[in-house]
């Protein structure tokens, strides 16, 4: 049965006005491609209720039933010896699903983690992750909209929002999930408010007899136009030719 309580709300509210339960999730893997046999070796999750960390977490190391390449070890520091006596994914799948089911997931580069977890779930004869949790929030996609043309990895976002990541010498699923939770809260600060206007809308102001001040029109200088074009170039490069502003200009 599909979980019905999952909604894609950016305001921290679920159906009926209840606080939304979110799980910030990260994984570490043996490599970059689950289709060629790479496996999950660590899962880290922390729980958010509304905009508050609850202190509940899920953290497991997993025996991938294959060797971990040296290149991957350099990234996360997890060795074959470290996971040799850990349970395989099938042993922890029920506990994992019990923790995440019904929550909305928050993941940095969600496609990567979801593909790996879906692969593991498929091996266990389970439905994919979206069946249990709905569509995840991808903080990488959101960060690219907020910071076009800039680096948007976890370290860069921690720096942007003043989050202390000095303990992150290597990648680690639980630490990265904890840092991402802080990044997500910083990125969405203010979005839990439904107050959209600080002044009355124009029609309301006119109805109240408020005189609208003359509209000032400021023209961009040549330097500002050049800077605008430079930024659009960065956006176009980052989005691989999908800059909406340039698409709209071409249509006009």
What is the global morphology? elongated
Helix content: 40-55%
Query: H/E series, N to C?
Result: EEEHHHEHHEHHHHHH
Structural class: alpha/beta
Superfamily (CATH H level) name of the largest domain: Ribonuclease H-like superfamily/Ribonuclease H
Kindly provide the name of the CATH class of the largest domain.
Alpha Beta
Tally of DSSP helical segments: 11
- Secondary-structure arrangement, i.e. CATH architecture of the largest domain: 2-Layer Sandwich
- Which parts are unreliable, with pLDDT below 50 for 5 consecutive residues or more? 1-17, 193-208
Main beta sheet strand tally, sense and closure:
5 strands, mixed
Mean pLDDT: 85
Number of strands: 5
Q: Strand order of the main beta sheet, please?
A: 3-2-1-4-5
Q: What number of structural domains do the residues give?
A: 2
């Amino acid at each position: 049965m599909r979980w019905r309580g999952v909604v894609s709300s950016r305001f921290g509210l679920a159906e009926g006005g209840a606080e939304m339960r979110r799980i910030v999730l990260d994984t570490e893997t043996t490599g970059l491609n689950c289709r060629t046999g790479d496996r999950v070796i660590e899962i880290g999750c922390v729980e958010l209720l509304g905009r508050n960390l609850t202190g509940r977490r899920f953290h497991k190391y997993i025996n991938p039933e294959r060797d971990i390449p040296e290149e991957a070890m350099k990234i996360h520091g997890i060795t074959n010896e470290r996971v040799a006596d850990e349970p395989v994914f099938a042993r922890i799948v029920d506990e994992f699903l019990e923790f995440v089911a019904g929550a909305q997931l928050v993941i940095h580069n969600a496609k990567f983690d979801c593909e790996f977890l879906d692969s593991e779930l498929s091996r266990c004869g389970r439905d994919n992750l979206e069946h249990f949790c709905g569509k995840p929030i991808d903080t990488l996609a959101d960060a690219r909209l907020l910071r076009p043309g800039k680096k948007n990895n976890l370290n860069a976002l921690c720096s942007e929002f003043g989050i202390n990541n000095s303990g992150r010498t290597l990648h680690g699923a639980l630490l990265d999930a904890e840092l991402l939770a802080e990044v997500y809260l910083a990125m969405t600060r203010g979005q839990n408010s439904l107050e959209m206007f600080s002044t009355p809308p124009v029609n309301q102001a006119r109805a109240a007899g408020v005189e609208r001040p003359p509209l000032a029109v400021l023209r961009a200088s040549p330097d500002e136009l050049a800077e605008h074009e430079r930024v659009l170039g960065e956006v176009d490069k980052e989005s691989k030719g999908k800059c909406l502003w340039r698409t709209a200009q071409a249509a006009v």
